[in-house]
Design a protein that fits this description.
Blueprint: H1 25-39, E1 48-52, E2 59-63, H2 70-74, E3 80-84, E4 101-105, H3 108-118, E5 126-129, H4 133-143, E6 148-152, H5 155-167, E7 173-176, E8 189-194, H6 203-208, E9 209-220, E10 226-232, E11 241-243, E12 273-274, H7 285-294, E13 299-305, E14 308-315, E15 320-326, E16 332-337, H8 342-350
Parallel strand pairs: 5-6, 5-8, 6-7, 8-9
Antiparallel strand pairs: 1-2, 3-4, 9-10, 10-11, 12-16, 13-14, 14-15, 15-16
The structure holds S-adenosylmethionine.
């Protein structure tokens, strides 16, 4: 996950953030950042999963509250996983697990950066998508819980977040459901912020944010290059904006996750052609971001086949594919199949 790294100070230094609502976040941001950098988060998660170092695919191992390292880990400026594969929580894991995270405690310094980017001020009403640590920070950031609505798609995550927030004395409006439709019942909002990424911005967020209000969300495609965007809602229902930089990454909103890969195509079922553009151009974040616009439903997979690495772009639903590989001399070749020419579409956009 994006944002600067580094560790926070000893947990003993914990300060409880907060204060009276309505004292003005804008004026407090500097103080808030200082407090966070010195003291960490306003509340620790009940238990977390940390990345297990080692070669191979990413593995996660639990750090439970009875672990002597637990409190310190909770206060590290690191993204800590709280749920895996949609149902597995830290207490379910013995040893290590290698499935994808589905909920996490966002990197604390990233949440602070996003609160700055959101330009929240006295009396602003905020809609948040994805509930947890960031919700606590919104409440702590002098907004006051009455002005915060947070919607979380996962019932279990929502329940444990509600417990953790309540234990800290925060009782914002918490809603369980798909945040992509927002929460019109409490609209309009001055600000909408998403702590999961989206492939395209739901128009419901524009409709539910006041004219002049801001929307802050990370846009991400299926090649996993993403960027934080800030949009200003206009009176005409249009919300222009710009990317803010920093290669901010969040897990995708669940309805925006890519489909399973299914059965792979027969990569020998097409002629091999030389290509000037190799698969390595997609190692670059910005190039990949643009490539996603050219082939928005393509996923990227690498396979070891016949003694060489095949870099495959795969549009599962339409059945389009492009496989790039290097020959013995290091020159790139491409084979393409299905109804679209994925490599050609990408090459045209990134040229
Ligand atoms: C990176 S976590 C952030 C959690 C929390 N905001 C925090 O900062 O600790 C992303 C969260 O978004 C939630 N999420 C994913 N898709 C969602 C959706 N469509 N609506 C609401 N929440 C969603 C996930 O379940 C997960 O808890």
């Amino acid at each position: 996950m994006g944002g600067p790294g580094g560790s926070f100070a000893e947990p003993d230094d914990l300060l409880v953030l907060g204060g009276e609502p309505g004292q003005g976040l804008a004026a407090e941001v500097g103080e808030l950042r200082d407090c966070l950098l010195r003291c960490g988060q306003p509340f620790p998660e009940l238990a977390v999963l940390e990345r297990a170092e080692g070669p191979g695919p990413t593995a996660w191992r639990p750090v439970m509250p009875d672990d002597p390292r637990w409190l310190e880990r909770c206060y590290d400026d690191e993204s800590l996983v709280t749920q895996i594969a949609g149902t597995i929580v830290p207490r379910d894991v013995r040893g290590e697990i290698m499935r994808s995270p589905t909920s996490s405690r966002t990197l604390p310094s990233l949440v602070v950066r996003m609160l700055e980017d959101l330009q929240v001020d006295d009396g602003h009403k905020v809609q948040e998508i994805g509930t947890g640590y960031s919700t606590g920070l919104l409440c702590a950031a002098r907004l006051g819980e009455d002005l915060v609505t947070s919607k979380e798609v996962d019932q279990d995550v929502a329940a444990s977040a509600a417990v953790a927030l309540g234990a800290c004395g925060y009782f914002p409006e918490l809603v369980v459901g798909d945040g992509l439709v927002g929460h019109p019942e409490s609209a309009p909002y001055d600000r909408t912020i998403a702590t999961c990424a989206v492939r395209d911005l739901p128009y419901a967020w524009v409709e539910q944010t006041k004219p002049g209000g801001l929307i802050l969300a990370t846009l991400c495609g299926w090649m996993y290059a993403s960027e934080l965007a800030r949009l200003t809602v206009g009176k005409d229902g249009v919300a222009p904006g710009r990317f803010l930089g920093g290669r901010v990454a969040f897990m995708l909103a669940r309805p925006h996750l890519p489909p399973d890969l299914g059965t792979l195509p027969d990569l020998d079922d097409a002629d091999e052609q030389p290509t000037e553009i190799g698969a390595d151009v997609l190692d670059d974040w910005s190039t990949r971001f643009v490539a996603q616009l050219a082939a928005p439903r393509a996923q990227r997979v690498s396979l070891e086949l016949g003694g060489r690495t095949e870099h495959v772009l795969l549009g599962v639903d339409a059945g389009a594919w492009a496989a790039l590989a290097q020959d013995d001399r290091g020159a790139w070749t491409v084979r393409q199949g299905g109804p679209a020419r994925l490599r050609d579409d990408v090459a045209e956009h990134i040229a």
